[in-house]
Amino acid sequence: MSAPLLRMAGIGKAFSGVTVLDDVDFELRAGETHALLGGNGAGKSTLMKILQGVYTLDRGTVEIDGEPVELGSPQASRRHGIAMIFQEFSLVPTLTVAQNIYLSREAKTRGGLLDDRELERRAGRLLGELGVDIDPRVEIGRLSTASMQLVEIAKALSQDARILIMDEPTASLAHSEVDALFQIIDRLKQRGITIVYITHRLEEVIAVADRVTVLRDGGVVGTQKTSDLDMQGLIELIVGRSVERAMEHSERPVDRTGVPLLELRGVSTASGLHDVDIQLHAGEILGLAGLMGSGRSELARAVFGIDAVQRGEILLRGNPVRIR
Ligand code: ADP
Ligand code: MG
User: Fold this and answer.
1) Rounded to whole angstroms, how far apart are CA atoms 267 and 295?
2) Of 61, 170, 177, 180, whose Cβ has the fewest other Cβ atoms within 10 Å?
3) How far is the CA of 21 from the centre of ligand 1 (A)?
4) Ligand number, closest to the Cα atom of 47
């Protein structure tokens, strides 16, 4: 087999003497979408900041196409085709989409700046190739977070990025926007772009990732093909103990004999809840599980009074309440 696109080997990193990454191996194959998983503090962002040139490594090596490289700065990483997709943060709100995409390049153009018309033409073509319907002449500040993220992706591509790092890209997106992002990821894959995808949402892993690497306490616990994964095994890799033991651990005595603290009876909303019944007793932790779009957020919105309850009722300590 040919060398992987990227190989990070034996990576070590400590902050003020505290080891955060210990002997981490991480590989990317050209054109794959690779999910990087692990609990909070596992070291995902630190590993990616090393790849991005924001942090220098204490130990270990990085190879691209089988050649050792030094990634001491973000500029060096960018030269090697590595780009981080930030949310809105690296875009200038008062400039247009086209100006933002070509911001860093404008200055470099010999023989003066490119004119706006030319920038807009190029940006339009790039966005079109991605299947993104955003007007290049519009000011960034007028776009949604999701659209800004797509502009970030276009910007990275305009700088010839081959490896895109997406750290929790769906954290502030609505369902429909997540679907749009997944379609873009498909297009990126068709162009041979390699993606590192960090998320806490395992259903997204199943939807987009070819392989996963799981970090725990600064070490790699495994790399696997997504098609070989079962959800239970994946959760066990992440939390480091069997799912049954994890459940035992979290079980608390709850008195379910009295009137529920909160009860939903046949609650339906315009946002898509149909006839939902729930009972929640004092001190109880109720998990809402389901795929994207199954109504988890909608349920919370209804209880919180953001979405109007059209049918059914909500009771607090047995008393019907109207939460507006
Ligand atoms: P993850 O992204 O997986 O949640 P991080 O890479 O952000 O994990 O953090 C891993 C560990 O490194 C955490 O314990 C965190 O507190 C620590 N850490 C991260 N960045 C720094 C820093 N700049 N200085 C000191 N400690 C840090
Ligand atoms: Mg992180």
Assistant:
1) 12
2) 61
3) 9
4) 1
